[in-house]
Structure formats: structure tokens, C-alpha cells
Amino acid sequence: MYLKKIIVLLLVISIGCDQSSTTVRVEKDQAAIRNVLEQSAKDWSKGDLEGYMNAYWNSEELKFVGSRGITFGWEQTLLNYKKGYPTPAHTGTLTFDVIHVDFLAAGVYSVIGKYHLERTVGEANGIFTLIFKKIDGQWKIIIDHSE
After folding, report:
1. The CATH number of 2-146 is which of 3.20.20.140, 3.10.450.50, 3.30.2130.30, 3.40.50.2300?
2. What is the pLDDT of residues 102-117, one digit of tens each?
3. What CA–CA distance (Å, rounded) separates 101 from 26?
4. pLDDT digits (tens, 9 = 90+) for 2-26
């Protein structure tokens, strides 16, 4: 009977430790994802669309969903950005307001937030949902739904 109590106690302690390490890992992942978004906003605001696209998975499997439908692929998404934001007056200054960063599965998170684009040709505001995945040690957007 005494041995059963010790085993149960050790299981409870190990589960608690595992949850603690998971919490720390999730917090680190969330902070890293926020850093990716901060850097991408800085790159955008400098007019560096290629730098901004570093946050995205460089793959034909990347999906961008917007008001005009779905775009597949990193190259096409970059071309669309270049076409829609051809000058510094169009790119302006980008800021993000991250509302939630949620753990979905190991190495996968969703991010819900708002964007604000301050620019001389007219401000633009909207909402987004991003799916981030850790690929080759880096957090990358694999799906972007922005409106």
C-alpha cells in the first residue's frame, strides 16, 4: 500500500513537472512568434517587402487568403504585395496588435490580431489569423488569412 502511494505521488510530481516545462516552452514559442511579427513589421515599414516575406514559409504550399480569394505560394504572394504596394507611400508604417497566440500542436500556433497601416495614400486597418509552424528551427507563417 505504501509503495502505491509513492508511485502515485511520483506520477503527480512528474506530470506537474512536464506541464511546467510545457508552459515554459509555449511561452518561449509565443515570444519568438511575436518577435517574428515585430521584425516583419519593421521590414515592411522600411519598404523591404522581401524582408517582410522572411516571416513566410518559402514554399509553393504557402496559402494567403484575402478579400480577393486565395493565393498559393511564396513567390506569388510576394508578387501580389509588390503589385499592391508599389511605393513607400503605399507601404507606409505597419503595426500589429496581437490579440491571441494559441498553441495548436507541437510546433504549430495560431495568431489572431489586427493590423494598422499608416500611410499617405490612406490608412488601412484589418484583422488576421495566421498559422505559424516551426520549420528548420524557424517560425514561419504557413497560412495567412487577412482582411
Report:
1. 3.10.450.50
2. 999 999 999 999 999 9
3. 10
4. 556 656 544 555 555 455 556 779 9
